[in-house]
Amino acid sequence: MKGMLEMVRAHKVAEVFEALYNAALNDDEARAVLLAVLRSTCSMYLLQEHEDMMRRVAHEGCALMQYVWGRYLYIVRGDSSTKEEAKTMLQDAAAAGVADARSCLSCWWRDGESGIVDYEKYVSEQERAIAEGSQLALQLRMEAMIYGYAGVKRDPRAAFDELERYIDEAERVNGYMDPRFYLYLAHAAKETGRETLSGSLYQKAFDEGVPEACLPLLLVTACDSEGKVIDKSAFDDIVTRGMERNYGEAFVYHMFSVSEDDYAAMSPEAQRKTTEEMTAMMTEAARLGEPLGAYMMAENHYYGSFGFEQDKEKAWAWYSVAAMQRLGLAYWTMSLMIAAHDAPRNYDMEFMHECELRALRYGCDDALDNVVIAYSQGYLKDYAEEIDKYYAPIFDAEEEDRHHNGEDNPDDDEDFPYDDDDCPDDDGRFDPYV
Questions:
Q1: Which pLDDT value is given to residue 410?
Q2: Which residues are CB-neighbours of 59 under 8 A, at least 6 positions away?
Q3: What is the pLDDT, as a whole number, of residue 307?
């Protein structure tokens, strides 16, 4: 198993999958390692060469492969044509005792995959999955506590304490522990002001093969509080090692070593090579499941920056890829393109507001006012229960605060939310650190 853990640390997902799948059917440690590797979104994208085998074995009735195939369809495919198959596979796996499958299924309620969002159902199903032994569900609960979402109250200190106890116990037992728990402990440490500790924990998670540790490690190790690179040597080292391990985030953030001023000062030949390199890096990031790769391709095409052809149809296509990868910002930007008449088709207002709703579901809080105001104007009636229960109360509380502070309400502007000035990223660039 020692050699296998080295492969895990190197994020050789396809090789780990090939080596552990059969053993994981009967060996608890092999199963724990395989499930831990597959909890990363990026890891699922590295299984594309095994599609035919996963489909075949899942349909033969193997519960573990039903989970893997269902999760793969949900994350990598993510479209309406595969949604029902993904759900069926996960339901069958959960019924057969694969606890992570139940956790994955609960996300249908969190993300509105069944039509509307139901946070209470999401939380109750996650708690059920935790009781059945799902480490994925426990990690998602910790994340919700750290940041406060999906109806869970923000309490990073309580999350830190619980994670610390969990990790201490796991290390005493001396069995295999999913290193993603170090990632969540790092998040909790950062949110409670323990910057130095968070940095060492992000480093630990990064070294143990956790792709999602790449960006926060860059931010705490090589950047200032505004996200600007201040230690280029450390930045380059992390990014290079991340790319070697196929961490999607590393391919995106490699690009931020070049500013627009740097690009403008280059020779035409150097500009051409830089544009080609950016295209390759961002495309590879998107292939690895990192939505910012597709989003940045879209931004460059929208604005014609860094030598990219200004083409709003191509921008829309790349924003759509990022949206399929569940980036709320991408849905938000698509809604703004429709409002500014920049979309390649004449999408109707209902579709525009549905983009805003999806943006809000996937964490883009900028869409809150638009969603609630559109609902008050007669749109989004199919989502009345969701909006009345989760979004309208937040809007009303914020409106009351604005009134108390003497600020204008967002709907005082007769053009809101369709102001032509509301184009994507008015400063012409996407700031990845905000």
A1: 60
A2: none
A3: 95
Long-range Cβ contacts of 200-206 (<8 Å, 24+ apart): 204/179, 205/179, 205/180, 206/238, 206/241, 206/242
Cα–Cα distance for residue pair 87/108, rounded to 1 Å: 9
**How many other C-beta atoms can be found within 10 angstroms of the C-beta atom of residue 47?**
22
Q: What is the DSSP letter of 223?
A: B
Residue 326 near residue 284 (C-beta atoms within 8 A): no
Q: How far is CA 192 from CA 146, 158, 184, 188, in A?
A: 9, 10, 12, 6
Separation of CA 400 from chain center: 32
| Residue 223 φ/ψ, nearest 5 degrees | -125, 160
Our CA angle for 199, 135, 112, nearest 5°, is: 95
| pLDDT tens-digit series, residues 123-160 | 999 999 999 999 999 999 999 999 999 989 999 999 99
pLDDT of residue 250: 92
Per-residue pLDDT at 428: 33
pTM value is 0.89
State both tokens at 218.
């860059």
Q: Read off the DSSP letter of residue 254.
A: G
Residue 211 · residue 43 · CB < 8 Å? yes
- Identity at 385, one-letter amino acid code: E
What are the 10-residue block averages of pLDDT along the chain, 434 residues in total? 86 94 91 95 94 96 97 89 93 97 96 92 96 97 95 96 95 86 97 95 96 93 86 92 93 80 94 95 95 96 96 97 96 97 93 97 96 97 96 93 73 49 36 31
Query: Whose structure tokens read 């108390």?
Result: 404
Rounded CA separation 3/10 (Å): 11
Helical ranges in 2-134 per DSSP H: 2-9, 13-24, 28-37, 41-45, 51-59, 63-72, 80-95, 99-111, 119-131
Instruction: Give the tokens for residue 390.
Output: 């989760």
Q: Residue 265 has which token pair? A: 């000062």
Indicate if the alpha-carbon torsion angle 71, 73, 77, 80 is positive or negative: negative
Residues 6+ apart with CB under 8 A from 138: 130, 166
Instruction: Let me know how long the chain is.
Output: 434
